[in-house]
Here is the input.
Amino acid sequence: MKKFLLIGLLTCLLAGLSTGLALAQDPQPGLPSDDQVNAIAKQLYCPVCENIPLDVCGTQACAQWRELIREKLSQGWSEAQIKQYFVDQYGDRVLATPPARGLNWLVYVVPPLAILLGAFMLYRAFRAWKQPALPLAESNSSLQSPADEYVRRLEEELRNR
Amino acid sequence: MIANLGYGSLVITFLLSLYGVFAAVYGARRNAPAWVDSARNAMLLTFPLLTLSALSIIYLLVNGNYEVEYVASVTSNSMPMYLKVTALWGGQAGSLVFWTWLMAAFASAVTLRKWDRDREFLPWVIVVALITLAFFLLMIIFFENPFERIWRLPFGQPVKAMFPPAGAELLIQPDGRGLNPLLRHPGMIIHPPMLYLGFVSFVIPYAFAIAALVTGRTDDRWIRLTRRWTLVAWLFLSLGLVLGGRWAYDVLGWGGYWGWDPVEIAAFMPWLTGTAFLHSVMIQEKRGMLKHWNMVLVILTYDLVIFGTFLTRSGVLSSVHAFAQSAIGPLFFVFIGLTLIASVALLLYRWSELKAEAEMTSLFSREALFLLNNLLFLGILVVCFWGVIFPLISELVTGQKVTVGPPFYERATGPQFAALLLLMGVAPLAAWRHSTAKTLGRAIWRPALFSLLVLAAVIVSGVTNWAALLGFWLSAFVASVTLYEFWRGALARHRTSGESLPLALWRLMGRNRRRYGGYIIHLGVVLMAIGVIGIELFQTETQGTIAQGERLTLGRFAIQFDELANFDTPDGRNVARAVVSVYKDGEKVRELYPRRDYYYESQQPMTIPGVRSTWEDDFYVLLVDWQPVSASGATFKVYHNPLVNWLWLGSIIFILGTMVAAWPDKDPETEARMVRRTLVAARA
Here is the structure.
């Protein structure tokens, strides 16, 4: 989201006093720029072209949708309003991610839960595995200088492969 | 005629596979070597038979036999020869045949190579390979037959069938519909075979794992036998993924390389479990632990390979309806389910024999860190799998489809990729068995300090995005740890052996290629990470319609529209090719030719970008639209993709590292055999 806003802002600045700012100030607004349209189109998916965001989709239908966004923008609609308009017309699938309500909560909840569960199991396993201490081995290795210790370890690792 | 020949040899191979499964099981159970040998012969015969089938398809494709539906759907008269040949994997039916052909080749290679050495495993390896083969052949023969022809009936619509319906005549068409233009790209010609090679070769470690479970030889023999296969499988899969990314960047015209499309994810999922497996087998080899877990990983990888093969070409997961209507969708799921249940049942049966020989003793040991790495890879897998499957679940339950797009995957996997990078920096410094915070700290402080200096330099250079700072710091950290490991090892060897430093480094790497190949892979990943950070966090774009001579500005860059030509080519395209001058800081640096190819026969447009590449960035120009009178204006979309070429460089280093790791060692067993033979010869 932030990224898109930033890009939108940046392009407005770059375009200088062209359409972007003119829209805000001019009582007789010109057409919104392609970048303004794309900033919104990027977040939408048409129901026909699977997994291709609207801003890069080459089909005729998608071109018409982009023109529709331009039209709405020139009528003074906000980004949220335009997105809502498409959701009302075509359903939630036009959004890049499912809105977090109803069953859709699952899409956001299941992966973190699964990962937490995995982490918990790993933690339990570690606790079960970890023996109190190996003081002998520890003190032995700390007697050697770090360099010797490294050479010894390297040798061992290279040997059993 | 040729179609019948190809089809016939498919059917014979199918029957032969079933026989082979039976003979191998019977022979192994009854301890009857003759039956096992017969199963082996059946296995070895599948390869020439499938070669015949594949060659038949190629013959039909090259010869323009458009009465065959598959030929008509993927080739046309105007296509060049090399595309006609590679159209073998240009569609679903042909690529399934190609898959089985590769499978037969690999399985035959295994039975030929390992025959005298691993007698007890091989019957079961043959069983697994032939069951897999038989399943795919079943799909092909009954549902996705590439030899089906189109018949004209005296009355009614033409029908598609293998054999002529009563009173029907062949419908000879003058030309085919041609290959999807998106697939007419060198990247797309090599990408599917690489992916399939990766898929198919992962069947081999799985087959050995199952053989180990069935025979009860549950030591790490199966892992040692399949180590190189796994690396080779992983190499091809990685190569396939990278080529796919490059193809998307060059051809799809959206300025990116990875769109979290289900098809991409399908190929990525076995790679994730495969990568986890590559790391965790080392724990079993060194410490005799995690035997159950490695079995789980290899079983998962196999089933994800089947899932991936099915997902990449069928498209049936796009909706519940497509799934229900397709004959192969449910069958694939049944096969995946059955193999999963059978494998897990076997694993449970042998559960107590797979006890760990050692225990985890320290949270900072290398094995503990490898387990964390496994957790993260599996975490990413869960995100991917859930994201691919969820739209179907939603449609099933609520009737409404939803899109699970890139923002979901990016948010859910980003932190996990960052954590993986961190582990990549820490784990190589940790010792097996016991490391303490103190010993680890002693090894880590130098590279950590260096990476902080790099971070400071990045901050000074003006980067303020915190995610980018974290990413660059992690990359610097991993790079310095890895290079430090090379340096420390070479220095130690130089001191003890007196070899010169470069020679010491060379010999050190030669002593354990897998270890140092792995480190080279890590360096490749670092470079790839830099590229990903660059394009993901700093990509900018703009779009505008400009008249001839006008300019469109993006940051320090600008393009000037010079001219546009529109013409037909002999291979059936209409090409609109623009000439634009690229200016950087007001100075002309390059001329680019973004174009739009329109393929008449398939009525599909294709957008080819014009790109100026440097190590610093890519300036990527797309021709979106143009006015009928070309001089009056054209619409361009331009992207600025910082650092993206580090992604490609990193990929190359990644692949080279994998090759170093997979390069055959002198096999101690073969050597011992050679010595024995020489001794025997000397005595005689």
